[in-house]
Design goal:
mainly alpha, signal, TPR-like_helical_dom_sf, Serine Threonine Protein Phosphatase 5, Tetratricopeptide repeat
Length: 331
């Protein structure tokens, strides 16, 4: 009797569904739950709550495993890695990328092509510049406009770190070519392309014409600021400071280093300062998907801001990094 009752209870939802009783098919419920996890992740990411976003994407990835859905695994795993990268956790992002690739391969499917770009950015942050440059080159060769643009910046930054003048020139040529094909890019993407090109050009001029390089770097910083890409803006302000110092303008260099340091410190210390950047990234990508937004945005390749802020602050003459922080205020 107990066995029959158990069987009747287990079969009841299926009977109701077959009779139009209003119960949802389990697949529909799972779809809705997966969508809820993904939406919660996107909302948290937009607010700069990257750890919360990662938790939601991890739940979505687990549900995708339950359903054995390769596309959902790829999307959730990718957005998880992006959130970890935004939270300045490149090692965790790299682990998530590897897990996503393996899970998708088990199901004989192809993973999302932007994974190479996120991995390149993660390896750049980890100081693995040769691997970052190689991965970025693969994305550039694939021909996707927005992703290729971001990959060229990662490749150029990695080449600069390696002292690879040829790689830096190749990134510059790619970005210049993107400018010629800018009709395929949205207005924010065009601004990001111009910013990336100006930064790479500035780096290439470090030895030969630092004054001109400084002007290009400051132009790039202004474009990045206007599009809410504050992490990249901080990095480029520091580049402008380096070039100003090389051209003999020490006061100007200190001012630029101070600006870079204070912006980076504010980003690192308060989640609210990241909200405009996250919103801008979504606009740049032209998509609600967080993964696409970060891949198309300026933040993907930027190094962690905490240590940079301290270093830039020292270069500026030990300026206060958080001048409006009440905990550090003096009476």
């Amino acid at each position: 009797m107990r066995g029959l009752l158990r069987g009747a209870v287990l079969g009841l939802p299926l009977l109701l569904a077959g009779c139009g009783g209003g119960a949802q098919n389990p697949t529909v419920r799972d779809d809705e739950t997966w969508d809820q996890f993904m939406t919660a992740g996107e909302d948290s990411f937009a607010l700069g709550r990257y750890s919360v976003a990662a938790t939601q994407y991890r739940k979505a990835a687990d549900l995708a495993l339950v359903r054995d859905s390769a596309p959902n695994i790829a999307e959730a795993g990718y957005d998880l890695a992006v959130s970890q990268l935004a939270a300045n956790q490149p090692a965790q992002a790299l682990a998530s990328i590897t897990a996503t690739r393996q899970a998708v391969a088990l199901r004989q499917a192809t993973s999302m092509p932007f994974l190479d770009l996120v991995e390149a950015a993660a390896r750049y942050r980890l100081g693995q510049y040769a691997q970052a440059q190689e991965l970025a080159a693969h994305v550039m060769a694939a021909g996707d406009g927005a992703a290729g643009m971001r990959a060229a910046l990662v490749a150029g930054l990695a080449a600069d770190k390696r002292g690879d003048a040829t790689g830096l020139s190749e990134a510059q040529a790619y970005l210049a070519g993107q400018g010629a094909r800018s009709k395929t890019l949205s207005a924010p993407q065009q601004a990001m392309q111009q910013a990336a090109l100006s930064e790479i050009q500035a780096r290439a001029l470090r030895a030969s014409d630092p004054a001109r390089g400084r002007a290009l770097a400051e132009h790039a910083a202004a474009l990045l600021r206007d599009n809410g890409a504050y992490r990249d803006m901080s990095r480029v302000l520091a580049l402008a400071a380096e070039l100003a110092n090389a051209s003999g303008d020490q006061p100007g260099a200190k001012a630029l280093w101070a600006r870079a340091a204070q912006s980076a410190a504010a980003q690192n210390g308060s989640s609210t300062t990241t909200l405009p950047a996250a919103a801008s990234e979504a606009a740049i990508a032209g998509s609600a998907a967080v993964g696409q937004s970060l891949a198309a945005s300026a933040g993907a390749a930027n190094a962690g801001t905490g240590g940079d802020a301290a270093s830039w602050g020292r270069n500026a003459g030990d300026v206060p990094l958080r001048p409006f922080d009440m905990d550090n205020a003096t009476p």
